Amino acid sequence: MKPSLIVHGGAWDIPDEQAAACQAGCRRALEAGWAMLSRGGAALDAVEAAIVVLEDDPVFDAGTGSHLNLDGQVECDAIVMEGASLRAGAVAGLKRIRNPIRLARKLMENGPHMMLAGEGAERYAVAQGFSLCAPEELVTAAERAAWKLCREGKHAAAHHRGHDQGTVGAVALDGMGRLVAATSTGGTCCKLPGRIGDSPLIGCGCYADSGAGGVSCTGYGEGIMKIVMAKSAVDLLRRPVNAEESPADLAMLAAREAVRLLVERAESTGGLILLDCEGNPGYAFNTPRMAWGVVQPDGSFRTGL
Ligand code: ASP
């Protein structure tokens, strides 16, 4: 089977001065994931590698550079899901894990549960050999300044360079037909401490089923949860292809239909990326921009906003 890879860096009002950095970040994530997939590597390794690049890039709202909650702290959420087994690992409310996606993977592979939050998740991390970072190591000067502006006046997206959201995600299909999806986020800025959005929730911020496809979402979590957007999008991929369309058309249509549902049923904003089980990519968003990147059939990288 031909491998395939798609990534996103969040659906938000990306200002012009951030556009190049967002596309460059997506490209680096594709490079990291594709270096594995193109040599016969596993979708799970590719997705993890791509997300780590995005988590480490302070332009995105995940890992380092995450938005701060009302108390001025980072709280990260992440999930990874495997389409063949329907196994998932999800972690939430992390303050001291540099790469939450690595812990999500560890939980999926070794853990007795599918989701761990807060202190318990960090204790599990230590027991699994992770080292904890100081919470401040994940806080960038730009996010601290934005948080201060919000605290002095009123929370406003403008304080965050228009960057009110900005989760990251990746979906990969490998040569063995293994399909994996993942999402990682710092959540929404100035959220209440303890708030968990759609991102780490199975079916909401992420879903993968080898019989249909894999999805990673981004946007306003409280809206995405209402329509269980990732699972809804995967189910839209199950429709038989009709005479006027190709499987590639259906992948794009399913993505657009999921965003239409988000508007109609939740009056909300966001976006998603997906791969169907053959590796056809789809993406859609109703925010001004969403950073995305995809490996094209000839192996070249395409990014966009
Ligand atoms: N969906 C994320 C959340 O609500 C935010 C985002 O995608 O930017 O936590």
How would you explain this protein's 3D organization?
The protein has a single domain (4-304), classed as Glutamine Phosphoribosylpyrophosphate, subunit 1, domain 1 (4-Layer Sandwich). Helices cover 34% and strands 24% of the residues. It has eight helices and twelve strands. The chain has helices at 16-37, 43-56, 100-110, 118-127, 141-152, 221-226, 229-236, 247-266, and strands at 4-12, 76-82, 88-94, 115-117, 168-173, 179-185, 206-209, 213-219, 270-276, 281-285, 289-295, 301-304. It has an eight-stranded mixed β-sheet with strand order 4-3-2-6-5-1-11-12. A four-stranded antiparallel β-sheet has the order 7-8-9-10. Helix 2 (43-56) runs antiparallel to helix 3 (100-110) and helix 7 (229-236) packs antiparallel against helix 8 (247-266). The two termini are 29 Å apart. The mean pLDDT is 95. The structure holds aspartic acid. The site of aspartic acid has 15 residues, from strand 8 and helix 6.
Produce the secondary structure layout:
Layout: E1 4-12, H1 16-37, H2 43-56, E2 76-82, E3 88-94, H3 100-110, E4 115-117, H4 118-127, H5 141-152, E5 168-173, E6 179-185, E7 206-209, E8 213-219, H6 221-226, H7 229-236, H8 247-266, E9 270-276, E10 281-285, E11 289-295, E12 301-304
Parallel strand pairs: 3-4
Antiparallel strand pairs: 1-5, 1-11, 2-3, 2-6, 5-6, 7-8, 8-9, 9-10, 11-12
Aspartic acid (ASP) binds next to strand 8 and helix 6.
